[in-house]
Design brief:
The complex is a heterodimer of chains A (248) and B (163). Chain A is an alpha+beta fold and 248 residues long. Chain A has 3 helices and 18 strands. Chain A has a 5-stranded antiparallel sheet, with helices on one face. In chain A, strands 15-14-17-18 form a 4-stranded antiparallel sheet, with no helix packed on it. Chain B has 9 helices and no strands. The chains are: A alpha+beta (248), B mainly alpha (163).
């Protein structure tokens, strides 16, 4: 048997071992209908919360498109581009289509300082840089987080009520870095192929170690406050540390 | 029937057709890739819900099935990340080294990173070409080739008898 035949046979065996399943269209339609209603509510709240944050922030200048209409920042008085009077989808911008960018989420650019809000569960802001691409960098407590690779990134991520829960991280996130620790969750962005190994040490034992690809979200909620946690990169540099008495 | 009602009915019918013809395909591919039938079923349903919500948009995509597959896969990945610790325990408990017909290749396939495994599954199990896989996964053909090559290199390393 050839090498490739062995692969095929094994995969067929695995497929055959999967229990048969069927979808339930009625349930899908019912869930979809219910969610459409709640989606609008959540999105409205999310955008409102993000707008509050945008007003509170002092460094939310972004140049997303050449030659945009200009508005004054409510906080700094700087001229800011207005993307659209109405939320604008990513269609027409450079880069892949919205579905490819955002894992199926319908993404909108809102007019406030380049804020990106999305369906229905994320709010983020982007710093200076041009849009080449947008990638999802994580999902935290139901909130999706997005960022622009290859551009300088100044990222704030808010929670459900608009509080800033992620420290700012400036730099190209496509070079692999820990993006932040938010509400008990690590979010790590990395390139594909992986360039770096990240290690999570719990009480002096390696709990998790691997090259990071795409985005890794490590829920700190899995750990006890008495655990000693240390997240290091491939050089051993500590990216995050939580002692039993004080969180990183 | 009102115009809105007619439109809704039209969309419903099309989505129903789409659902009927693709649910199994997405579920089966996903189940083999993530090796978890329950999660695959849930993820496929979740992706279908999202597809239904945006059906006006999704139906115009070149490859709506690929879109649903990617959404399902990403949703499953997120779920698996959250369940990281628990998942390890479950996998450890479920492994039965005596039953597989080809344990060496099974182990080798299981050890592949998920993004390589999904390319291998789509190519060898579902006989998809490079362009088809690229469309399905929303990645470039070159990426498909490199992932497949890396996967095969890893498998050959794991299975030196096949060299």
């Amino acid at each position: 048997m050839t090498f490739e035949s062995r692969i095929r046979n094994q995969l067929r065996a695995e497929l055959d071992s999967m229990p048969p399943a069927s979808g339930h269209l009625d349930r899908v339609l019912a869930r979809g209908s219910r969610r459409r209603v709640s989606h609008r509510v959540v999105q409205t709240v999310a955008v409102a919360a993000a707008m509050v944050l945008a007003v509170a922030s002092t460094a939310l200048v972004v140049r997303l498109l050449a030659g945009p209409e200009v508005m004054k920042s409510p906080t700094t008085g700087e001229s800011l581009p207005v993307i659209s009077e109405d939320p604008l989808t990513l269609q027409g911008l450079p880069g892949p289509s919205p579905d490819r960018l955002l894992d199926g989420s319908e993404v909108r650019f809102d007019r406030i300082d380049g804020l990106i809000g999305g369906e229905p569960d994320f709010v983020s802001e982007l710093g200076a840089g041009s849009i080449h691409d947008v990638i999802a960098i994580g999902e935290v407590q139901g909130w999706r987080v997005f960022a622009v690779p290859g551009a300088k990134l100044d990222l704030i991520i808010t929670d459900e009520i608009g509080r800033s829960v992620l420290r700012r991280a400036t730099g190209g996130i496509n070079e692999g870095m820990i993006v932040g620790v938010m509400q008990g969750t690590f979010v790590i962005a990395q390139t594909d192929p992986p360039a770096e190994t990240v290690t999570l040490i719990v009480d002096d034992e390696v709990f998790w170690q691997r090259p990071v690809e795409g985005v890794v979200v490590i829920p700190l909620a899995d750990f006890d406050e008495n655990d000693f946690l240390r997240l290091t990169d491939s050089t051993g540099e500590v990216l995050y540390e939580q002692s039993p008495t004080r969180r990183g | 029937m009102s115009r809105a009602g007619e439109m809704d009915q039209l969309r419903w019918t099309k989505f129903e057709d789409f659902y009927s013809s693709t649910w199994q395909e997405v579920y089966r591919a996903l189940a083999v890739v993530i090796r978890d039938a329950d999660l695959a079923r849930e993820a496929t349903d979740e992706a279908m819900v999202r597809g239904y919500q945006r059906w006006n948009l999704v139906q115009r995509y070149d490859n709506p099935t690929g879109w649903v597959y990617r959404v399902a896969l990403n949703w499953a990945r997120s779920r698996m990340r959250r369940m990281h610790r628990i998942e390890h325990r479950i996998v450890d408990e479920q492994v039965d080294p005596e039953t597989p017909a080809d344990p060496a290749i099974e182990r080798a396939l299981a050890s592949l990173p998920q993004h390589q495994r999904e390319v291998v599954v789509l190519h060898y199990l579902f006989d998809m070409s490079g362009p088809q896989i690229a469309s399905q996964l929303g990645i470039k053909e070159g990426t498909v080739r490199s992932r497949l090559n890396r996967a095969l290199a890893s498998l050959r390393e794991e299975l030196p008898d096949d060299l």
